[in-house]
Amino acid sequence: MARIVWRDQLNIGFTLIDDDHKMLVEYLNDLDAAVNGRAYDSKTVAQIVLKMLQYAQEHIEREDDLMVRSNYPETEGHKRAHAELTAQANKIGAEFLRDQSLEKAIEIYEFVADWLVKHIIDTDQKLGDYLNKSNFTLSSDIFFRSIA
Ligand SMILES: [Fe+2]
User: Fold this and answer.
1) Quick one: pLDDT band at residue 121, thresholds 50, 70, 90?
2) Residue 42 belongs to a domain with what CATH number?
3) Domain for residue 76, yes or no?
4) Gap from CA of 69 to ligand 1 centroid (Å)
5) Cα of 119 to ligand 1 centre, how many Å?
6) Distances from the Cα of 78 to the Cα of 60, 83, 116, 122, angstroms
7) What total of structural domains would you count in the chain?
8) How much distance in Å is there from the Cα of 47 to the middle of ligand 1?
9) Residue 139: which pLDDT band, with cuts at 50, 70 and 90?
10) Is residue 33 part of a domain?
11) Does residue 57 lie in a domain region?
12) Separation of CA 43 and ligand 1 centre (Å)
């Protein structure tokens, strides 16, 4: 485990999403610090894990909504990847409630960190390119919906 340093490769160029991803990296770094602390405190770790999984869920809902609103052509496949993550996150969240061991916390960290970085680079970057090429902004979306 290691601290994740935000790097340009992780920016998709759409602030709403980039800010969410940065927040998730912050949770991961909090978890990393809590797991690597001198004494393992399962209560602190459980709080971070649950908040992180909750935030990941909210972020996924925001991203799904954004894809639909912007008529993103790859919405279906991207949503499927999100649904798989949600299912896995629910599973590991439930496992952690039963077994709040250091090993389980490390497993969760590694799963989320690995998934997030890969997903941003392989999948979210394509969405960012699309949003930027089509000049999509949330304000224009709200405007167009208001006159529709
Ligand atoms: Fe995504």
Assistant:
1) very high
2) 1.20.120.50
3) yes
4) 15
5) 6
6) 10, 9, 13, 11
7) 1
8) 24
9) confident
10) yes
11) yes
12) 29
Distance from the CA of 66 to the center of ligand 1, in angstroms?
Answer: 10
- Distance (angstroms) between ligand 1 centre and the Cα of 144 equals 24
Give the structural domain span for 106.
13-147
Average the pLDDT over 18-35 and give the result: 96
| Amino acid identity for residue 134 in this structure | S
Tokens coding 21: 């991803």
What the block records as the tokens of 127 is 């969405």
Q: Ligand 1: distance of its center to the CA of 41 in Å?
A: 31
In a domain, 32, yes or no: yes
User: What is the distance in A from the centroid of ligand 1 to the CA of 52?
Assistant: 16
Dist. CA 51–CA 78, nearest whole Å = 23
Per-residue pLDDT at 20 exceeds 90: yes
Start-end of H helices in 1-148: 15-35, 42-69, 75-98, 102-119, 125-133, 138-147
Nearest to 54 by CA among 81, 23, 22: 23
